[in-house]
Amino acid sequence: MPLNIPTGLPAIKILESEGIFVMDSKRAMAQDIRPMRVILLNLMPLKIATETHILRVLSNTPLQVEMEFMHMKSHVSKHTPREHLQAFYKTFDNVRPYKYDGMIVTGAPVELLDFEEVDYWSELTEIFDWAKENVTSTFFICWGAQAGMYHYYGIPKYEIGKKMFGVFSHRVLNEKVNLMRGFDDGFVAPHSRYTENRVEDILKHPELELLSVSDEAGVYIVARKDGKQIFVTGHSEYDPLTLKEEYERDIRKGIPVEIPKNYFPYDDPTQMPFVRWRSHAHLLFANWLNYYVYQVTSYILS
């Protein structure tokens, strides 16, 4: 089944060129199917690129997914055209009266700030509180996951000295949990962050379950046992060149950064990266949509 994407969204042409089945909202209206209503809270500066990443990993599912997009009213985006935000994005004021099957919260490049120092923190926590009552399940990514665990459970983040940057091996801790169905015992996923969460802090909360860790990258997947919240500290949604682009951006800015680990063949940045996390990314998002959204959401959202 296809993704139902707003007519004219730039990601449509990119996804169609990759052979991914998408339909615009006009065509979707002709189908008598109850789509899953999912909203993306996009906190990333390059919102168009992030939209494409997320839509790509949501595409490999038999469900029709109706996408909406939200940005922060209390923060001025400097890297996305205003016309794009006006055409495709809503603010929380527009979203507040409605209910959603799922919500995805992206990361943000603010992890070295204390949470309360982030200029949109007050608005973000208001959205988090609203989501508890109005969203069937929320999927938090990277800094978004750290922010969610901090707000809901008081779980802190810790600076780790240098950037956790590259593609790392992970292991499944409980293969019987629906989110991990079909996973190999070991798999890889990208990370790009300067902070971490720690196992001992998560284990203090009996309503949470640690589902996947990495010996090198640490905590990866944490879930509330009722499936209402999924926290993923890495970036399984990244496309093949995202880490390369981040590496080259940091070099241009003079930021001291190591070559992303386990990413370039022979650690040679002149070579094309070899993708090893694509199947994991599709399975992770498909499991979330199926078991934590579709299987448990109400047919009539209101």
CATH architecture: 3-Layer(aba) Sandwich
CATH fold title = Rossmann fold
Q: What is the count of structural domains?
A: 1
> Ends: how far apart?
24 Å
CA radius of gyration is 18 Å
Structure summary, number of beta strands: 12
By secondary-structure content and strand pairing, the structural class works out as alpha/beta
Mean pLDDT: 92
| SSE run | EHEHEHEHEHEHEHEEHEEEHH
Q: What would the principal axes of the Cα set say about the shape? A: globular
| Largest beta-sheet characterization | 12 strands, mixed
Low-confidence stretches: none
Structure description:
- The chain is of the alpha/beta class and 302 residues long.
- Helices cover 30% and strands 25% of the residues.
- Strands 1, 2, 3, 4, 5, 6, 7, 8, 9, 10, 11 and 12 form a 12-stranded mixed beta sheet that branches.
- The chain starts with a strand and ends in an 8-residue tail after the last helix.
